[in-house]
Amino acid sequence: MGFGKGNHLHLVDGSAYIFRAYHALPPLTRKSDGLPIGAVAGFCNMLWSQLSANRTKDGPTHIAVVFDYSSKTFRDAIYDQYKANRPEPPEELRPQFPLTREATRAFNVACLEMENYEADDIIATLARQATEAGGDVTIISSDKDLMQLVGNGVDMYDAMKSKRIGVEEVEEKFGVGPERVVDVQALAGDSVDNVPGAPGIGIKTAALLINEYGDLETLLARAEEIKQPKRRAALVENAELIRISKRLVTLDDHVPLTWSLDEFEVKEPEPETVLGFLGQMEFRTLSKRVADSLKVEAPAIPDAPVSAAAAEAAAEVPQAPFDHAAYEHVRDAEALNRWIALIRERGHVAVDTETTSLDEMRAELVGISLSVEPGQACYIPVGHRQGGGDLFGSSELVGGQMALDDVLSALKPVLEDDAILKIGQNMKYDWKIFARHGINVAPIDDTMLMSYAMHSGLHNHGMDLLSERYLDHRPIEIKTLLGTGKSQITFDQVAVDDAVKYAAEDADITLRLWQRFKPNLHRAQVTTVYETLERPLVPVLARMEMAGILVDGQVLSRMSNAFAQKMAGLEAEIQDLAGEPFNVGSPKQLGEILFDRMGVEGGKKGKTGAYATGADVLEDITTLEDVAPQAARLASSVLDWRQLSKLKSTYTDALQTHVNPETGRVHTSYSIAGANTGRLASTDPNLQNIPVRTEEGRRIREAFVAGPGMRLVSLDYSQIELRILAHVADIPELKQAFRDGIDIHALTASEMFSVPLEEMTPEVRRRAKAINFGVIYGISGFGLARNLRIPRAEAQGFIDRYFERFPGIKTYMDATVAFAKDHGFVQTLFGRKIHTPEINAKGPHAGFARRAAINAPIQGAAADIIRRAMIRMPAAIDGLPATMLLQVHDELLFEVDEGAVDSLIAAAREVMEGAARPAAHLDVPLVVDAGQGANWAEAH
C-alpha cells in the first residue's frame, strides 16, 4: 500500500543536526587513532532519540535524513556571491561529515542528498509530495528557511528544545504567516548566506511593509509612495537585488527526485549493522542503550591500545576544581606585593590582559590577571569605568582599583626577569600590550603554540576549545559580559566583580593548559618544533607588527578615484556594446544581454530562469572562436569591471580605514597558528592577498612607501617549493637544474615536450610552469584544462607524461599518502607534524585529503624555512638602520636607511639562503631575489 492518508513522514535536516551537535557538545576523539568524533556522537544520540520516539503509537510511519551534497547549488548561478561569506567548516568537523552519512544508513534510515540542490529543497519537494498524497509531515529542524513550508499538513519540531513550530510560531518569528516568509526574507536579507536584501531593512520593518502592502511585488511597484526617504530609496534602488534575494530564499519544491515516499517506511535497525558501526566509533554508552532496546547483547568494545606516552599523560594528578569565588580581586599594593612574592617563589606565572579592543595598537589596558597554581588566580583592575564615558572619555574610574602606573611599575621587574617564566595563551597579543607600556616581557611560553605544535590539523587552538577539550571545563563566555550587536560594551564597562571571575579564570585555564601541554611536547616529539619555530617567533612578529608599514593615503585615494573613473568608462563601454543601458553589477541583466540579445550560445539557466554569468563563464566567452567579437569584448570588459570593483572596495577604499592615526602606518596582525602547514596568515588588514597578477593590482603596492630618507627592500625566495619538491622527491634532473641555475620551467618543457632549450617558446614554457606548480597542489586534469584552456584529455595527458618523465614525484606522492594513512600525520623536513584525520575518508573529501597530505610537507617546509630566517634576522641586522616590516609568503620586506641598502641585502640574503641549515641539508641551493625602491611596487 502506497504512502497516503494516515501516514506521517518525518524529514530530519541532517546538516543542521551535524552543526548543532558539533557546537553544542564538547570535543571528542576516538581513542584508537585520535579521529574527531564529537559531532558524530551528538548526531547518533539525537538520531537514536528520534527513532526511539518514533516507536510509540503516535510516531511516524516514514522517515528520512536529508543532507546538503556540497556548498555549490543552482543558487550560485542566480547570484555568484551566495554564501560567499560563510567560513570553511572547522578542520576537525570535515572528516565527520561522511561518518554521519554512514551512521544514518547504519540505523536503517534513508540517507538523502542530491547534487546542485540544498537539503532544504529536497525537504520542500518531499513535503509537497507527502501532503499531496494525503499524509502529514514533520520537519525535524529549527532552520528559519524551512518555516515557509509550515501549514497545510506540515509542521516543524526543534529536537534540541523539544519545541513544536507551527503557524503561530512562524508568525511570532517573522511577523507574517508562512506564505509570506520569503517576502520578508527577501527584504531583510541574510548576512550568513550573503542574501543581499534591502540595505537597512530588518525583519520587523520587512514584516510591517509586507503586511501593509500585501506582498513583495505590490510593495516594489508602489515603493515611491513610501514616506521615509531612506526606506523608499532602499527599495527603489535595490529592487532587482531584492527580487534576486527572493529567488535565493524560495525553496524549490519540484526537485527531480529519484526516490519514492514508500522507500522511507520506518524500519528497525539491523542489530549487527548498527552495533558494528557504534563499536567502530567506540560509543560504549550508546551501544548499550541500542542493544538493550533491540533486546540483543551489546558487543564488547575493546579499549584502544594505549602508548606509554599516553598512559603517562593519563596518569597525571587530577586538577583542582574551578572555583570562581576563590579568585582574588587585587585592590592595593599590599595584595599585589603578596602575589609578586608568590610569583618569585614559583618561578613562573600565567599572565593575561583585558583591554578595550582586539587591536593591540589602539587598545587601552583595563586589567591584568595572574595565576601561579591551579585554582589560585587574581585580577588587578586598572581601567574600569562607570557609565562607559562619552566621546571625550570623561567617565570616571570605579573604586577598588589601583593606578595603572603603580601596577606596571610593580610588575615590570617580574615580567622582565629572566628567571621567571611568563606563560600566556596567544602571548603575542599580551606582549604587544605590555610593550606599548615600556615592558619587554621575557622569557615566555605560549599554550596556543604548544597545542599548535602537537595538534596541528586536528582542531583550532583557541583557549575555549582547549579548555573544553583538555580540561573538561567550559569557560565563561565573553558575550555574557559584553553582550552582542549594537548594545555590546567594551571591557572597561564590565562590573569589576564580574571581570574578576572572567579574567582570573583565563589565567587559571592558561596555567592548567601549560601544566598539561609542556611535558607532552617531548612525548609528541615536537619539542624542537616548538622551541625553534614557534616560541622564538612571538617577539619577532610582535616587533614587526608594532613597526607597521607607512601608507600614503593620498595615493590610495587617487587610486580609488582612478578606479571609479575607469569603472565608469567601462560601464559606458559595456552598455554601448550591449546597445542599451543595464546594471553591470546585475548577473541576471548581464545574462539576458549576452545570451538573449547578443545570441551567445551555451548559456545555462538556473531553476529561476537566470543565466550563469560567473567569471568562468565570461572567460570562456572571451576565448571561444564562434562568439561574436562584440560579445567577447563585452564579457572581457565586465571581467575588467568586476576586478576593478573588487580592488576598489577591498583594498584602496578599505586600506585607508586601517591606517593608525597615531603612527600613520598600517599594522597588520599575523596568526602563527592559523594554517595547518605553518604558513603565517595576515589579518586586519590582510596584506598577503594583495593581487599582483594584474597591472591595477600591482599598483596597490605603490601606496606602501618608505619613510623620509629610507628605502623599502624586498627579499624573496625563488621557487622555494619546487626546490623542496626536487629534494624530497629526489629528482636528479630537477636538482641538477637548480644547481646549474637553469630555468626550471623551460627544462620541464624541454623534457616533456622534446623541445630544445634554445627553441623554447613562451607558450610551451607557460604550460610547463602550470604543470610544475599544479603538481605540487595536486591539480587534476580538469583543473589544468581550465588553467591552460585546453581539452581535459590533453591536460590529463600532460600530467601523465609529467609523471612518466619524473617518476620520483609519483613515488613521493604515493609514499606520503601511505605514511599519512599509517600514522595519521605527515611531517616536514624540520619535524613539524601536520595531522591528516580525513586521509582515510571516502567520497568527495578523499581527494582533498590526499592532495593536502601530499602538499603539506612541501608547503610546510617552505614555511619552516622562512620562519627560521625571520627568527635569525634580528641578530643578523642588529646595528643596521633597518627594520623588518612584513612577511608575505616567501618574501620579507624591510625598511632601511638609503645608505645601508646594500649592507641590509647582503646580511638578509645570507640568513635566508642559509636558513635550512644545520637542521636540514638540501640537495638544491636556496636562491633569494632582492629589490629595492621608494615603495613596495618598486622593491618587488
TrEMBL record:
Q: Where are the transmembrane segments?
A: none
Q: Tell me the ranges covered by the 3'-5' exonuclease domain, including all copies.
A: 327-522
What Gene3D superfamilies would the database entry show? Answer: 3.30.70.370, 5' to 3' exonuclease, C-terminal subdomain, 5'-nuclease, Ribonuclease H-like superfamily/Ribonuclease H, Taq DNA Polymerase, Chain T, domain 4
Q: Which residues does the UniProt record annotate as the domain 5'-3' exonuclease?
A: 7-267
Limits of the DNA-directed DNA polymerase family A palm domain: 697-900
Keywords attached to this entry: DNA damage, DNA repair, DNA replication, DNA-binding, DNA-directed DNA polymerase, Exonuclease, Hydrolase, Nuclease, Nucleotidyltransferase, Transferase
Pfam assignment, any one:
5_3_exonuc_N
Single GO BP term: double-strand break repair
* Reaction catalysed by this enzyme: DNA(n) + a 2'-deoxyribonucleoside 5'-triphosphate = DNA(n+1) + diphosphate
Q: Which CDD domains match?
A: DNA_pol_A_pol_I_C, DNA_polA_I_Ecoli_like_exo, H3TH_53EXO, PIN_53EXO
Q: Which GO terms describe its molecular function?
A: 3'-5' exonuclease activity; 5'-3' exonuclease activity; DNA binding; DNA-directed DNA polymerase activity
User: Organism's domain of life?
Assistant: Bacteria
For this protein, the Enzyme Commission number is 2.7.7.7
What EC class does the entry list? transferase
Show the InterPro entries listed in the entry: 3'-5'_exonuclease_dom (IPR002562), 5-3_exonucl_a-hlix_arch_N (IPR020046), 5-3_exonuclease (IPR002421), 5-3_exonuclease_C_sf (IPR036279), DNA-dir_DNA_pol_A_CS (IPR019760), DNA-dir_DNA_pol_A_palm_dom (IPR001098), DNA/RNA_pol_sf (IPR043502), DNA_polI_H3TH (IPR020045)
Subunit composition and interactions: Single-chain monomer with multiple functions.
List the PANTHER family hit by this protein, alphabetically: DNA POLYMERASE I (PTHR10133), DNA POLYMERASE NU (PTHR10133:SF27)
Protein role: In addition to polymerase activity, this DNA polymerase exhibits 3'-5' and 5'-3' exonuclease activity.
Please state which protein family the record places this protein in.
Belongs to the DNA polymerase type-A family.
Q: What is this protein's name?
A: DNA polymerase I
Q: Which organism is it from?
A: Albidovulum denitrificans
